[in-house]
Amino acid sequence: MRTATYFFIFLNLSLALFEEPAVYPLPFLATSVLEVLCLLVFLGRLTHFAKVTLHNVFWKDTKNICIMVAILLSLTDLAIYGVLRLYDVRSIRWSRIVRPIFLINFAESRQIRRAFRSIRNTLPEITYVFLLFMFSLLMFSLMALKLFGERNLQTAEGLPYFRNYLEIVFDLYVLVTTANSPDVMMPAFDFSSWYALFFIAFVIVNTYIFMSLFLAVVYNNYKKHLKVMPGGAGD
């Protein structure tokens, strides 16, 4: 039962590769039949679990409620999408975002559920570090706007360079990952090599200090919650 449940959960999640917009597109009839098959297996597994569980215990378990709601939403969305296709109306399969619910809430997924709860409990404790990082990013973006915004600099593609505050925030946010380095700083560096000091300071503060601090806080709190997480029978 556990192997079969995991197989159909994996199959259900894998359908995203074959549904529009798809990496390897399959006919809608094929993907819809597979999805209905998976949902029937999930419903059968839930029914079997209800047969061997006390009635009041089954209905008080939020995991079972989540699975039933996810099945209902998936079937409703599938029916609506199919009807709209008959009338050549383009729509989006919004129910795909609920598919991970099956992975988390079945009884066989206790370890995954513990990891998910640890992540959920860690989020409030890393909020302060994240807010400090965002404050630093916004302040550096404001300084960049004042330094470069009035100098009519252009990128290699001839686009305005650091003249819009929100675009500066996004460019510097990406620079934290060093994904757009050194392209983002070259127009300023070509204008004056002294401007490199601004980007060096930004990378030191945000990439090497804040990102390391952020990672340390996430790791320590996640490990702490994973150790103290209860593992009772109703987990």
TrEMBL record:
Pfam families: Ion_trans (PF00520). InterPro entries: Ion_trans_dom. Residues 6-224 form the Ion transport domain. GO terms for cellular component: membrane. It is found in: Membrane. Residues 1-16 form the signal peptide. GO terms for molecular function: monoatomic ion channel activity. It is a multi-pass membrane protein. The chain crosses the membrane at residues 26-44, 65-84, 126-145, 165-182, 194-219. Gene3D superfamilies: 1.10.287.70. Keywords: Membrane, Signal, Transmembrane, Transmembrane helix. This is TPC2 protein.
